[in-house]
Hints:
The chain has about 190 residues and is mainly α. The protein has helices spanning about 1-25, 40-45, 65-75, 75-80, 110, 115-125, 135-150, and strands at about 60-65, 160, 170-175, 180-185. Helix content is about 40%, strand content about 10%. It has a two-stranded antiparallel ribbon. Helix 3 (about 65-75) packs across helix 7 (about 135-150) and helix 6 packs across helix 7 (about 135-150).
Amino acid sequence: MFSSRKPALLLCAGMIAAGGTLARAAEPGFYDYGDQPTPAQITGWDIDVRGDDGVGLPPGKGTVQRGSEVYAEQCAACHGIFGEGEGRFPKLVGGAGTLMDDRPELTVGSYWPFAPTLWDYINRAMPMAAPHTLSADDVYALTAYILHLNDVVSNEFVADRDSLPKVKMPIVTISSGSTQDLIPWPSRA
Length: 189
């Protein structure tokens, strides 16, 4: 009988200790683990880019030519030499005019509405094995190259924080009453 009191007392002591921690955790802004991030740490993770106007794009620039080099090194193994996709990895090129089909081809050239969104995705998620490791210049270059592969920009295009928001993607969505029409965009940047 004496031996059963000791585990019961330990269990009660543990519950009291846990209750105190849980009560503190309920206080706003207190999670009882880690350190409060510094402003510099928060700034380092503040990497979002707005698609429609490019707010948040960092300084830097990249050419289509440099993008072809980076693409060959970092992207072709998964996305194919010309963006056609390899194995289970998605196509980046083609699909123009297929969004209304039974089996649309969802590529940069067929459904991405804003060029800065492409920059943001590459910056955050690519290359798949080591995301967010490319320099801003290389991300700009890749964006320029992929846009060029989709006939959105010319071979002389230089991507930067000023030029990307001005790129007219092949497809734009406009509101017309209660429905949305997909309109092909006729010109190149």
